[in-house]
Amino acid sequence: MEKEVSKIPKLTGKIKVPGDKSISHRAIMFGALAWGKTNVKGFLQGEDCLSTIKCFRKLGIKIEQNNDEVQIWGKGLKGLTEPQDILDVGNSGTTLRLISGILAGQNFLSILTGDNSIRKRPMARVTDPLRLMGADISGRENGKLAPLVIKGQNLKAINFTSPVASAQVKSAILLAGLYAEGITEVNEPSKSRNHTEIMLKSFGAEIDEVDNKVRIKPMPNLQAQDIHVPGDISSAAFFLVAGAIHPSADLLLEGVGLNPTRTGIIDVLQQMGANLEITETWTSAGEEVGNIRIKSSNLKGIKFGGDIIPRLIDEIPVIAVAACFASGITEIRDAEELKVKESNRLSTIATELTKLGAKIEELPDGLRIEGNSSLTGKLVESYHDHRIAMSLAVAGIMAEGTTVIKDSECVDISFPGFFEMLVGKLD
Ligand SMILES: O=C(O)C1=C[C@@H](OP(=O)(O)O)[C@@H](O)[C@H](O)C1
Ligand SMILES: C=C(OP(=O)(O)O)C(=O)O
């Protein structure tokens, strides 16, 4: 489906973005592994999280979903049953990598696959450490690519230093660690999002985090919990950037997750000079949450890289859009992980923004963007990548003429209702 976006006079009002994708996946998974009924509110009804529900239903778990409320009747750590069919994770890397850690410790066989994009994404980063724990996993190119076949085994703990800062890798190993003999330890080069650690602790797991190191003990059982999922800061990011670059904007984003491992976008926008304020904060199930006000801003280009990258990994395409409207140069480094997301996001965002008239150069590990651009609407590709489609829509409300985004339905992966919300703010 093609979506047309054009300039808007004003961007004002209150916004409540849908639930956090990372937390919604984990609520389903950990609820399935706990004893008793887990109630989830604010669940993200995006296709990725619906894929997680489908997989756990195939693993024998009763799950009822009504809009953003979900009930999961968990059957304990050993309560999953052998699926009668292939588990399809759709477009979701988080589902595939985290579920692999869980399935490695079961006493049955599972086969996992996903869409065209998922079957190109690197899986050795989880299959290698899981094999070190004793997992029996095969897959295309010797387990580097899905489909994967996992034959559950008795696992042993490992002390693993991950070459990449990835919450999916860390979480897969920690989940396998729940089933392993001994204490499992994961070290990573920079700290990635810690939703697994926070939520597993609330389910009763013995897990401790010190800087970039996490340790987990095997457990006999986890206890069901009530979980209120905060708004997804990665979805809020599109409105934060839109508000900052639009000349007549004043938006209040309510109930957004502000876990410090996710707030790199706020740090970067503030460094760029954004008129951004956190107006209220509170805590829900160990996660920081708050309201954010963003107003029209005069942004300036900045350079960033290193430890901040995992804290804003999914926001880089829309930060590139912000950089087009800043004064001066923005340089983003150490972001090679973007090459192995739903699309190669360094090249897809650079290619499509260039079509609109942006001055953007792809670097081996990032992007260099010259600001003060004037963009003109064109036909652009989303590459079926939700974050590329939404970033181009934000560029589209600032461009002269009409921007037409191809395969725009992919926004449903993480943000159903995105265009309606954006259009609802257009008056
Ligand atoms: O654990 C998670 O929920 C996620 C971790 C990140 O991926 P990596 O672990 O591959 O960096 C992120 O890009 C993805 O959107 C969600
Ligand atoms: C990379 C993403 O998700 P996943 O890895 O779960 O497909 C994303 O949502 O931007």
Summarize the structure in words.
- The chain has helices at 21-33, 47-58, 93-103, 124-132, 140-143, 167-177, 195-202, 233-245, 264-271, 316-324, 345-355, 386-396, 418-424; strands spanning 3-6, 11-15, 35-41, 62-66, 69-75, 87-88, 109-113, 136-139, 145-151, 155-156, 159-161, 180-181, 184-187, 207-210, 213-216, 226-228, 249-257, 275-284, 287-295, 303-304, 329-332, 359-363, 366-370, 379-380, 402-405.
- The chain is of the alpha/beta class.
- The chain has 2 domains: 3-19 and 230-424, UDP-n-acetylglucosamine1-carboxyvinyl-transferase, Chain, CATH 3.65.10.10; 21-228, Enolpyruvate transferase domain (UDP-n-acetylglucosamine1-carboxyvinyl-transferase, Chain, Alpha-beta prism).
- Helix 10 (316-324) runs parallel beside helix 12 (386-396).
- The chain binds shikimate-3-phosphate and phosphoenolpyruvate.
- Shikimate-3-phosphate (S3P) binds at residues 22, 93-94, 166-168, 171, 192-193, 313-314, 337.
- Residues 7-422 form the Enolpyruvate transferase domain.
**CATH H-level superfamily of the largest domain:** Enolpyruvate transferase domain
Helix proportion range: 25-40%
Biggest sheet details? 4 strands, mixed
Which spans of ≥5 residues are poorly predicted at pLDDT below 50? none
Percent in strands:
25-35%
CATH topology name of the largest domain, in short, is UDP-n-acetylglucosamine1-carboxyvinyl-transferase, Chain
Give a short synopsis of this structure.
By secondary structure, the protein is of the alpha/beta class.
